[in-house]
Amino acid sequence: MRLPSPAQRLRWPELLRRFSSSSPSSSSAAPILWKPAEPRPTTTLQLLSWGRGSSGQLGGGVEETRYYPTPVASLHLPSDFCLSPVPGRLPDATKGKGTVEVGISCGLFHSSLLVDGQFWIWGKGDGGRLGFGHESYAFVPTLNQNLDGVRSLALGGLHSVALTRDGEIFTWGYGGFGALGHSVYHRELLPRLVIGPWNGKICQIATSGAHTAAISDSGELYTWGRDQGDGRLGLGGGGGPGEGGAFSTPTKVNALPVPVAAVVCGAFFTMALSSEGQVWNWGANSNYELGSGDRRSDWRPKSVPSLQDVRVIQIAGGGYHTLALTDKGKVLSWGHGGHGQLGHGSFESQKVPQMIDALSSEHIVYVACEGSTSAAVTDKGKLYMWGNSQDCQLGVPGLPEKQPSPVEVKFLVDEEEDEHHVLAVAIGASHAMCLVSKNKS
After folding, report:
1. How remote is the C-alpha of 293 from its chain's centroid?
2. Residues 251, 201: contact at Cβ < 8 Å?
3. Largest pairwise CA distance in the chain
4. Which of 202, 240, 301, 319 could pair covalently with 267 via S-S, beta carbons 3.0-4.6 A apart?
5. Contact at 8 Å (CB) between 291 and 337?
6. pTM of the complete model beyond 0.90
7. β-strand 64-78 against 32-34: which pairing, if any?
8. Where are the RCC repeats (predicted)?
9. pLDDT (tens digit, 9 = 90+) per residue, 190-222?
10. If we measure between CA atoms, which residue out of 152, 45, 21 comes closest to residue 415?
């Protein structure tokens, strides 16, 4: 299918509205994956996906490319639901806990949905990353009954990580470079408990292609997986004893001088937030990933100089770039900009954090990035995306392959429902998903 020309794009909203009323992928066809066992007031949420789905990661049941957000599933949640903990995001002490937590995550070629301790997972099965006990693909959201009581999920390149309500970590999938934390480098087809040296419980997890991080409830940070001399684990300049300089079991990052409350893993670097919102990072820096103004990599955690007086509430790490969301609702970015992923209207890299001016009139409440693609959600529920659009992962048909400025993502509408309020967004290598609440017009 050929993408529309600029002239055709002018008529795209009208065409989408026509298509939505007759397409089998319209909202009415989205299966209901969760609803309360007993009758009670509920809020309807939808999970939508888009981009390239050659491995089934879109959840639509077939290999396909979706040029715009298309429903995958519906959820009927109690009205007091809340989002599950998100890697890189500070806990919000001002918000009460909901009776049901919901969250989404994208790996490179697999996806997940978490609701009330249960999780559905789908996409590429190589290495056992879906946790079903085999390596077969799943083309629709499939309930994983091998682990329950889950509070947070983080999907990596070839593996997956789960945090339970009891503060325990389970991992599964390809174990190369020690990414699973089990002292072994082979695959695990089923979720397996990670035994670490921490006291107490784990309160946040994060992972990337080949390394993983976890924070204990006392603010201690533990990392494991691939280090390869770039220092992304924060454990020393020489790397670990395993293959590729790996550490195959969780090890405390003693070089961090402060307790931390949030962590996120970029491709070759790691970032953490103190409870006060100060950004610390370490690892590879050849593309200015650390925001220090130079290109010197360093395994030792350091705070970002230009953010000393800024309170950051969420950080997100891509392949070679970073997004930071402040408590004022502003977004800063830095690192590699070759695909426009920094959102500054150019393809230049940024040595230090710079505010995204195109979003300055919005109050942003949620950010995400992966590879060379970025996204932001406003307090009004609007979704903006920018960066790599080669696989239609920005959800806006007709864009160039490199989109250097944020564009608003539009949604299919029909006569009864015309407003989508985006709550969360997740990005994979070539696809993306979001959770939305639906409001009647």
Report:
1. 26
2. no
3. 61
4. 319
5. no
6. yes
7. parallel
8. 45-117, 117-166, 167-218, 219-276, 277-328, 329-380, 381-438
9. 999 999 999 999 999 999 999 999 999 999 999
10. 21
Residues 6+ apart with CB under 8 A from 332: 307, 310, 323, 324, 326, 353, 354, 355, 356
Q: Which two tokens stand for residue 46?
A: 């939808």
76 residue type, one letter = H
The answer to whether the beta carbons of residues 146 and 131 sit under 8 Å apart is: yes
Q: Which two tokens stand for residue 243?
A: 């293959």
User: Cα 15–368–58 angle (5° rounding)?
Assistant: 50
Confidence of residue 418 (pLDDT cuts 50, 70, 90): low
HSE (side-chain half, CA atoms, 13 Å) at 194: 33
3-class DSSP state of 178: helix
What's residue 256's pLDDT? 97
- Amino acid at residue number 435: L
Q: What are phi and psi of 440, to 5 degrees?
A: -75, 145
Does position 358 have pLDDT exceeding 50, yes or no?
A: yes
Picking from 167, 267, 148, the residue whose alpha carbon sits closest to that of residue 207 is 267
Cα-flanking dihedrals φ and ψ of residue 184, to 5°?
Answer: -130, 165
Task: Give, for 13, the enclosing helix (H) or strand (E).
Answer: helix 12-22
Best CA proximity match to 394, nearest among 368, 356, 359: 368
Residue with tokens 């940070």: 221
Distance (Å, rounded) from C-alpha 365 to C-alpha 377?
Answer: 6
Q: Which residue has the tokens 């879109």?
A: 58
3-state DSSP helix/strand/coil % of the chain, to nearest 5: 5, 45, 50
